[in-house]
Amino acid sequence: MTLSEKDTLYNWHPYTQHKTAFPHPVIIKGQGALLWDEHGKEYVDAIASWWVNPFGHSNTFIAKAIYAQLTQLEHVLFGGFTHEPVIQLSEKLSQILPSSQKKFFYSDNGSTAVEVALKCALQYFYNKGEKRTKIIAFENAFHGDTFGAMAASGISFFTDAFQGSLLEVVRIPVPTVGNEEKAIKALEDLVKTEEYVAFIFEPLVQGAAGMVMYSATVLDQLIAIAKKHQVFTIADEVMTGFGKTGKNFACDYLEQQPDMMCLSKALTGGTIPMAITSFTKEIYDGFYDDDTNKALFHGHTFTANPTGCAAALAAIQLLETEEMQENINQVHQQHLAFAERIKTHHKVASTRVLGVIFALEIKLEGEHDYYGPLRNKLYSFFIENGVIMRPVGNIIYILPPYIITDVQLEKIYTTIEKALASI
Fold first, then answer.
1. Distance CA 104, CA 86 (A)
2. What whole-number distance in Å separates Cα of residue 321 and Cα of residue 340?
3. 111 is in an annotated binding site
């Protein structure tokens, strides 16, 4: 029995209808922006393995930091204890995050980072004796798959089965070009009611919606409106954080600062699952009380895992190097050049670029399902041609490791051009 056959026998993969899915390629090795399967076939990882590997696969600098930590202290409970790596990491985060972020709560993944933020927003007002129970989010948002994060998400097939079991979330339009005033008016009308605890958003780029982009100027306006009415703002930087947008964080483009930030994915350079929710001191102080019941009773077994913290410290060190910043700019420039080259193609409706993120919308008639025939055809085409990409409906996007070479990027671009010719 092959490894692929054994995988089919035992494993249940995410976002997969196994009755109609093809057998999954078995990846056995990775190096830089490349992966190899059990048959020796080479793939360019055009999406950094779901946006988590900005410094490439098998990065020796991060691996050495992990090994050194494993041989000193692999894990210790964070309830009632602490350790040096988490103190160093929190100190480093306080230096590179917006200055509003003062306290750091550790968890396991992007969904749990969002879950912590939502729980804190709700409990903050509960601790004060105020009855606020609702959340504001954008249409077509995606914030994760745990119940709170899922409630805040707006892509229906992710949540349809759970309607009636979720937090109450009211959605406003995404402030893309032409929709700015609609979004502003919708938010203004909601926050006046004093029923809402938080406004959660993916800053500047909605990832799972197909890399939908909007301006920092309008987000600044929305944050200011929320703050004026004591509605907390939650920046979900799980996808955008750690260099993806061309700055360390998408919030670095803003003049307003969020009350909370959610971090994960690239946090540890794609090595160890870990997440962080950061807070203003005001929110922390809402739980700081002689009454034990006002504490945040939330935790995870591997909270602030020392090995994960060591990986994150190494990843941030890499991010801050001049070489990595040059790499990010080089990818950005290559994307801009490709956008210019492809924009007049008769099957291209639009392109958009921010930092290392490139997205292309295919011009086709009618509606196209998120996981519909077009998407599946494109996905299979890319895999067959040695490029790992996960199109969203009729949108193709690239979000590669920062260390990708010009030759590897060109392979991605030419494969997209071939894919357009095939449909």
1. 10
2. 29
3. yes
pLDDT in tens, 97-143: 999 999 999 999 999 999 999 999 999 999 999 999 999 999 999 99
The answer to whether residue 368 scores a pLDDT higher than 70 is no
Beta strands 196-201; 395-398: pairing state: unpaired
Provide the whole-model pTM: 0.96
Q: Which of 82, 54, 39 is nearest to 271 (CA)?
A: 54
Radius of gyration of the chain (CA): 22
What DSSP line would sit under 14-48, residue for residue?
Answer: TT--TTTPPPPP-EEEEEBTEEEETT--EEEETTH
- In angstroms, the CA 39 to CA 327 distance is 31
Q: What are the chain's domains?
A: 3-59+321-422 (3.90.1150.10), 63-319 (3.40.640.10)
Least confident of 19-28, 150-159, 200-209: 150-159
The answer to the question of whether 49 is labelled as a binding residue is no
Only one residue has tokens 């930590």, namely: 69
The Cα–Cα gap between 247 and 252 comes to: 7
Half-sphere CA count of 153, side-chain side, radius 13 A? 24
Kindly list the distances between the CA atom of residue 174 and the CA atoms of 139, 182, 399, in Å, as whole numbers in the listed order.
6, 9, 21
Task: Determine if residue 300 is labeled as part of a ligand binding site.
Answer: yes
13 is in an annotated binding site: no
Residues 263 and 225 sit within 8 Å (Cβ to Cβ): no
**Is 12 known as a binding-site position?**
no
Q: Quick one: angle between helices 406-422 and 373-384, nearest 10?
A: 140
The answer on whether 119 is annotated among ligand-binding residues is no
Q: Does 375 belong to an annotated binding site? A: no
